[in-house]
């Protein structure tokens, strides 16, 4: 069984990335650090794809092409972990483990590059900006990513999980993560003095009523045997104590597994926005606009490849690789998978206290107290290393003539969804 080992520089790289987090499409320092490391390890690096994105290729001659993706960006949170290497950037934090993903990918790639017995083929590393915004992968594709790298036989990606302890990996054959859509409702009015509440529309009240009503869409408009989430994660209404806000912007996030549910929810959101506009004395289309900002397809694991990888992980590493139900988290790696039309596997890496049971084993991802257990980096590095090595050796069951993803299945009545993704992806 292979030991969980790290390149000597990997922990320092991880801590440096954690200290200097950068938001989406601003990851210049982060991309520079990874470009330097991968160039040093023998990879040919191309920068500035999709803004701050980069790719790195190791060419060992004829053979399979194995791609792996990691994310560059952090979140707008003030860190409160108390770590010695805590973020030094005010209001920005790696609260979703992207720093660990990057260090693990770089470490795994370096270990493979150093092997004289590495099977022939090419390793393609995709370091993507703005995963948290849901638009980084699309921007890389729009900027020519698919044409810039060898076409992969498989695309690998992993994500830390605070719902599993260190030493546990988890994945799903078929649909793994939900599709996500982000919309924005904006409204404008003349404003006015708060002492004259009857002198015009109150945009904050409009936004508050809209928020309440949108949160009932799933409970009242979506059939109870389906699963979906409609959330209002943000509202902006610049104002002052004596001023009725002259503008408001409401962000709406939708997560679904099935296209029919997505279409139902989009229709209901449109109807609710129109109705609340009328109730507030606003004209939809003039005073109020509804725009669709981004759409991320659901993540589909190629079942046969995922099953091969799970078995290989358990055979070669001191880990367990569990099968879990789909999760309502999302990840725009799905955009890359569709753009390449390739087989894909996405798995979770437990980051909680060793020996714990599945379930919350530490502060969740996307919170200001999230910090992976120190042993997580070695597990994630080994998991990615063995996955890439298996791909090069032809052990993952990939076949260019076979379908690139598992058949679309109806998950509407398969029972409760996993909570694993709630502490993972965007």
From TrEMBL:
Pfam families: Peptidase_M20. Coiled coil: none annotated. Residues 396-426 are annotated as: Disordered. Gene3D superfamilies: 3.30.70.360, Zn peptidases (3.40.630.10). NCBIfam families: amidohydrolases. This is Amidohydrolase. It comes from Kitasatospora herbaricolor. The lineage of its organism: Bacteria, Bacillati, Actinomycetota, Actinomycetes, Kitasatosporales.
């Amino acid at each position: 069984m292979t030991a969980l080992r790290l390149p000597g520089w990997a922990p320092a790289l991880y801590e440096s990335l954690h200290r200097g987090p950068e938001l989406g499409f601003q990851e210049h320092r982060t991309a520079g650090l990874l470009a330097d490391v991968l160039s040093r390890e023998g990879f040919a690096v191309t920068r500035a794809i999709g803004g701050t994105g980069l790719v790195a290729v190791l060419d060992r001659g004829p053979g399979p092409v194995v791609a792996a993706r990691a994310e560059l960006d952090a979140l707008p949170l003030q860190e409160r972990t108390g770590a010695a290497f805590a973020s030094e950037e005010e209001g920005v934090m790696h609260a979703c483990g992207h720093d660990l993903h990057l260090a693990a990918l770089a470490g795994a790639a370096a270990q493979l590059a150093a092997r004289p017995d590495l099977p022939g083929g090419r390793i393609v590393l995709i370091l993507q900006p703005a995963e948290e915004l849901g638009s980084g992968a699309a921007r890389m594709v729009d900027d020519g990513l698919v044409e810039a790298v060898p076409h992969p036989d498989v695309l690998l990606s992993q994500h830390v999980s605070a719902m599993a302890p260190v030493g546990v990996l988890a994945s799903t054959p078929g649909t793994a993560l939900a599709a996500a859509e982000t919309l924005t409702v904006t409204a404008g009015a003349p404003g006015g003095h708060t002492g004259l509440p009857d002198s015009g529309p109150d945009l904050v009240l409009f936004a508050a009523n809209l928020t309440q009503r949108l949160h009932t869409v799933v409970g009242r408009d979506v059939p109870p045997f389906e699963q979906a989430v409609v959330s209002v994660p943000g509202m902006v209404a610049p104002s002052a104590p004596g001023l009725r806000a002259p503008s408001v912007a409401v962000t709406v996030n939708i997560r679904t597994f099935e296209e029919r549910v997505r279409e139902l929810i989009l229709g209901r959101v449109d109807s609710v926005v129109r109705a609340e506009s009328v109730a507030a004395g606003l004209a939809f289309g003039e005073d109020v606009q509804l725009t669709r900002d981004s759409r991320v397809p659901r993540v589909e694991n190629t079942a046969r490849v995922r099953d091969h990888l799970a078995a290989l992980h358990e055979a070669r590493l001191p880990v367990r690789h569990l099968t879990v139900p789909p999760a309502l988290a999302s990840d725009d790696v799905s955009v890359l998978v569709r753009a390449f039309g390739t087989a894909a596997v996405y798995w979770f890496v437990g980051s909680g206290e060793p020996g714990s049971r599945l379930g919350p084993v530490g502060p969740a991802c996307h919170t200001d107290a999230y910090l992976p257990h120190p042993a997580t980096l070695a597990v994630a590095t080994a998991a990615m290393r063995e996955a890439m090595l298996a791909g090069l050796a032809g052990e993952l069951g990939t076949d260019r003539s076979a379908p690139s993803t598992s058949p679309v299945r109806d998950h509407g009545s398969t029972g409760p969804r996993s909570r694993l993704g709630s502490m993972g992806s965007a």
